[in-house]
């Protein structure tokens, strides 16, 4: 009589690929030691937004001065 080999259960069969993938990802991440910070990809957009806000403020101030001068000339 030969003994039948036990078959893995469905849970083990489903868990094994996920466990292998997780282990591979963890091992890849552990080996890296990068001392420089990641690049700031939004830095240019942030600077452009600040410049636009400053320009808008200057334009509003100029419009207010123009309105004040126009009112003073009408009086």
Tell me briefly what this model is.
The chain is mainly α. It contains 2 helices and no strands. 71% of the residues lie in helices and 0% in strands.
Written overview of the protein:
With 75 residues, this protein is mainly α. 71% of the residues lie in helices and 0% in strands. It contains two helices and no strands. The chain is rod-shaped and about 115 Å long. The termini are far apart.
Keywords:
75 residues; mainly alpha; 2 helices
What does the average pLDDT come to?
83
**Total number of beta strands:** 0
Question: How does the major sheet shape up?
Answer: none
Distance between the termini: 117 Å
**Sheet/helix structural class:** mainly alpha
Output the radius of gyration. 34 Å
Order of helices and strands: HH
Shape: rod-shaped
In DSSP terms, counting alpha (H) and pi (I) runs of 4 or more, how many helices?
2
Strand content: under 5%
**Poorly predicted regions:** none
Q: Estimate percent helicity.
A: over 70%
Layout of helices and strands:
Elements: H1 10-30, H2 43-74
């Amino acid at each position: 009589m030969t003994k039948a080999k036990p078959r893995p259960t469905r849970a083990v069969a489903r868990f094994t690929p996920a466990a292998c993938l997780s282990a591979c990802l963890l091992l890849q991440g552990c080996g890296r030691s990068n001392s420089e910070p990641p690049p700031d990809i939004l830095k240019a957009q942030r600077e452009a937004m600040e410049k636009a806000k400053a320009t808008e403020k200057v334009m509003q101030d100029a419009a207010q001065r123009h309105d004040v001068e126009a009112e003073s000339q009408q009086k």
